[in-house]
Design a protein that fits this description.
- There is one protein chain.
- With 279 residues, the chain is of the alpha+beta class.
- The chain has 2 domains: 46 residues, no CATH class; 211 residues, Alpha-Beta Complex (Fumarylacetoacetate hydrolase, domain 2), CATH 3.90.850.
- It contains 7 helices and 16 strands.
- A 6-stranded mixed sheet has the order 5-4-14-8-9-11, with helices on one face. It has a 5-stranded mixed sheet with strand order 6-16-15-12-13, with no helix packed on it. It has a 3-stranded antiparallel sheet with strand order 1-2-3, with no helix packed on it.
- Strand 15 and strand 16 form a beta hairpin.
- Helix 3 packs antiparallel against helix 4.
- The longest helix is centred in the first third of the chain and has 10 residues.
- The two termini are 30 Å apart.
- The structure holds 2,5-dioxopentanoic acid and magnesium ion.
């Protein structure tokens, strides 16, 4: 049926439904130790080959997506360059005690694997941002990792940093997936390769590679600021900032394919639609 289900993926390319689990958000209501036991001991439905499953974005309920900014030197440099008049805000936040955190998406706007990402019709310079995203439970514990594409309008943000919500939050701006890798299966989250390729009309238009080793913040430090003075009853997804920014004059075009791979976590692939918003 078309009902969304929660499943466990095994390394032999099979997926089995987690019996009795109605939503991901429900899982984020358990402390990490309980979640781990629940996943290890949960009863599973029939195993289905991955190819027969339509993967949805791994987010539901009222779980929000937030994102951190200017957490890699590459991002700081790109922002300083695109916004000469306001460059110091980026310089300052890179070394400030409080990180830059911003709201990115509600679940219904999130685009899953193979879905269409959007570029705003009123933007002229647009880039994908490949980011490691943390899945955080309601207690502020990191329970898993996924891949986030924090699509951004460089022309709108570059005009004035106060335009950040317009540059970052719009129809099709947030890609997430292809699944969640449990935290206990990743040995060192500070040593993950991040790769991005952008293909246009059958040709490689841009590619780059970096590592979470260059992250300028600690993951739990980012989470602690996100939980400070706030509540996330259905847990929260926190994207940790980009380590790759295709330099100007690069801009995304309608029909581009963006693939982001994070070692041990997964590969998120999407196509780009310019002016994706209906109406
Ligand atoms: O400061 C603006 C946003 C930065 C961002 O999204 C990033 O560094 O990934
Ligand atoms: Mg970003």
């Amino acid at each position: 049926s078309a009902e969304p289900r929660v499943g466990l993926y095994d390394d032999d390319d099979g997926v089995a439904e987690l019996a009795g689990v109605r939503s991901l958000a429900g899982l984020w209501a358990s402390p990490l130790a309980e979640l781990r036991e629940r996943l290890a001991g949960g009863s599973l439905g029939d195993r289905v080959p991955l190819g027969e499953v339509d993967l949805l974005a791994p987010i539901d309920g009222t779980t929000e997506v937030w994102a951190a900014g200017v957490t890699y030197e590459t991002s700081r440099e790109a922002r300083v360059e695109e916004s000469e008049r306001a460059a110091t805000v980026y310089e300052l936040v890179y070394d400030a005690e409080r990180p830059e955190l911003f709201f990115k998406s509600v679940p219904w706007r999130v685009v899953g694997p193979d879905g269409s990402l959007g570029v705003r019709a009123d933007s002229v310079v647009d880039v994908p941002e490949p980011e490691l995203a943390l899945v955080v439970n309601r207690f502020g514990e990191i329970v898993g990792y996924t891949v986030c594409n924090d699509m951004s309008s460089r022309s709108i943000e570059g005009e004035n940093p106060l335009y950040l919500p317009q540059a970052k939050i719009y129809f099709g701006a947030c890609g997430l997936g292809p699944w969640i890798r449990p935290v206990w299966e990743i040995e060192d989250p500070y040593d993950l390769k991040i790769e991005m390729t952008i293909d246009r009309e059958g040709r490689r238009e841009w590619s780059g590679e970096a590592s979470t080793a260059r992250l300028h913040r600690r993951l739990d430090e980012l989470v602690s600021y996100l939980m400070r003075g706030d509540v996330h009853p259905d847990g929260v997804i926190l994207s940790t900032g980009t380590c790759l920014v295709p330099p100007a004059p690069f801009t995304l075009a309608d029909g581009d394919t963006v693939e982001i791979g994070i070692g041990g976590v997964g590969v998120l692939r999407n196509t780009v639609v310019r002016g994706a918003a209906p109406g």
